[in-house]
Every structure is written in structure tokens, then in C-alpha cells.
Amino acid sequence: MMSILKLQNVGYTYDGRTKVLDGLNYEFAKGRVYAIVGRSGAGKTTLLSLLSGLTSPTEGTILFEDKDVSKIDRYQYRSRYVGVVFQQFNLLPHLTAAENVELSMRASGKIIPDKKKLAAELLEKVDLDEALAKRRVLKLSGGEQQRVAIARALSFDPDIILADEPTGNLDITTQEDVMDIFKRLAHEEGKCVIIVSHSPEVAASADEVYELASLREKRKR
User: Would you say residue 23 lies in a domain?
Assistant: First the structure.
């Protein structure tokens, strides 16, 4: 299976002094769901920032389709190839679900002839009907807002979906529903889905699990 993302001896150090990640060699392929787990302080959020191109590693290389991410157009990488789903949703609450998705399409710069139609299709894909699509985000439940966030991340058809604790604020039933959506996106549509999570249930649902140990824990071993 071809990897779309590769980490080669990746490390990250804050302020030139505090090392958070060291010597990571991970590979991520399309069509699979990955869970990145570990205790607080293990560097999960830092790793997500590196994978999304928001931060560059201080050691090693991250390859996207065998190209060094640090040497390609970072804005294009983030706005066309990587969709991010946040724990706090990061939606505009006074816009409707559909308007949030359409706004993301405009920001990507991709030519999409009928944004309203595509937004409706994406929201339907994450199990939100026409009535919910027209509802302001402020009036939606947490689970519904997370579905909008996933639809927004899909709005420019990225190859990679990165999700930061996407089920952290949801009850178990809604968590399972959201994980089912991620699995459909990977297994039926060939997306590479990478989820950072504390949840054992999320890890159990993933195709592959990478466990990050903090450097302090590693030194104890």
C-alpha cells in the first residue's frame, strides 16, 4: 500500500531547548483510519501541527506524496490536500451549517461551480438533512456541529483528514456515529484519516494505532 504521508526521523524542539518529539518514523496510507494516542504531554497536538503543515519539524523530514512538505507551497498544501477537524469545531455560530461549508470552499480557492449543491451533498454524507443544513450552527447539538465540521473539512476534497480529539465532547453513541463517518470516508472514499485522541474506543475503531510516549517516559524505560 502506497503511503501518502511519511515521517522520517522527525523530531521537534521548542525554543531550541525543550524536545517534544524525537525520531518518529510513521507512514500513513489512503483508505485507512489511524489513531495517534498517548498521555498529555506526549506531543500529540504538536504532531498534528506538523502533519498539517502549520509547523515544521526541527529534525527529520515529512513527505507528502514523496515531496518534502517544507519545500512545497504550504498554503496550497493546507487548503487543498489536508482537511482539519477540531475538537471545539471552530465553526461560525451565526451562520448556517451549509454556509459554514460554503465559506470553506471559497477559502480553498478551488473552482467549484455549484457550492450550494456540493454543501448539501457533503452535509447529507455526514447524516445531516436539508432542514439541519439550513439551521444556524448555534442551534445544533454538539454531535451535529461535529458533523458540520467534518463536512467543512471535506469541502475541497482533500486526500488527508486530520482530526484533533473529534469525539472528546461527545457521548458514546454520538462518538460511535462520528467514527462510522470517518471509517466510511477512509474505506469507501479512499481518504487517509488521522485522528489524535485519548479515547480507547477511538483507538479500537482505527485500522492502525501509533502510540506516542513522552520523552520523559522513554527515559524511564
Answer: no
